Amino acid sequence: MGRYDLRDRIAALDPEKDHLEIYQISSGREFPWDYTRALEFALFRTYCVPSISKLLAATGEFRDRPQRRYDDTALLMAEMAAHGYDSARGREALKVVNRAHGRYAISNDDMLYVLSTFIYDPIDWLARYGWRPLHEHERLAAFHYYRAVGTRMGIRGIPDNYQSFLTFKHSYEERYFVYSATNREIGRYTVELFADWFPGFLKPAVRLGVRGMLDERMLSAFGFDPAPQWVGKLAALGLRTRARALRLFPPRRESVLGKPKRNHTYPGYPSGYQPSDLGAPPPPDDLPAEFRRSSRQGQGNIDMT
């Protein structure tokens, strides 16, 4: 296979009708490492919204089990992407996600915003650091893929075109990215999670590097001091150098979706695991009433069975 054969295959597909196949090729074969890093930062970005960080702080999960929360989210999303959201494993993964969200009073707009980051943050990352430019079909397929997932999550009012959803995302960040103590709390737990993936002597550099990758709006919402400018420039240089080197590599012959090399929480995954084995525990008994979903509150068309 030639280096650009998969891109040419994507160009021949329909970004709406074939969105799952395109997304699987793009995220599982062309840019798997980049998608993983970009989705990590996409989730990190959502913690800049006080209504989101306040709920996460109230559950105590990021304080007590940050690695498990990260692994559960990553694996459940990978199950849907690898097997398809309407496959047996994909539907089971969706039930786990919906059951977890259905226990809490989460606004539809917050759910809608989080969904938007899964589409556009990887696209922004790859525009800066991808080894080749994304094809237009890849961008549109990501939109159609997550729109389908969001519909199955019961999220209401998902815009029906790429640009409208991007406009919603930008407007939401302009309105709701403001500092709060819980933003800072969840942000610190997340930075420490990233640092814990490295040997002790590298942790200070990782903490500094993460801050160097954040834009001014995120830094302000988290209340983090900015890193020196050279940190961000050095990180960007490293990522762009990696991208140039990858252009010389042969295309990946098999998708890595659903086949993690290592998992901190579930060392044996995916062998012997089902999506139903994943997921957060029930809310703590002392969770404030404002975060509990009442029996009268619905959440779209979620299948909670």
UniProtKB/TrEMBL annotation:
The keyword Oxidoreductase applies. This is Oxygenase MpaB family protein. Residues 296-305 have a biased composition (Polar residues). One of its GO terms (molecular function) is oxidoreductase activity. The lineage of its organism: Bacteria, Bacillati, Actinomycetota, Actinomycetes, Micromonosporales. Residues 57-237 form the ER-bound oxygenase mpaB/mpaB'/Rubber oxygenase catalytic domain. It holds the Pfam family MPAB_Lcp_cat. Keywords: Oxidoreductase. It comes from Actinoplanes subglobosus. The keyword Nucleotide-binding does not apply. It comes from the Bacteria. InterPro entries: MPAB (IPR046366), MPAB/Lcp_cat_dom (IPR018713).
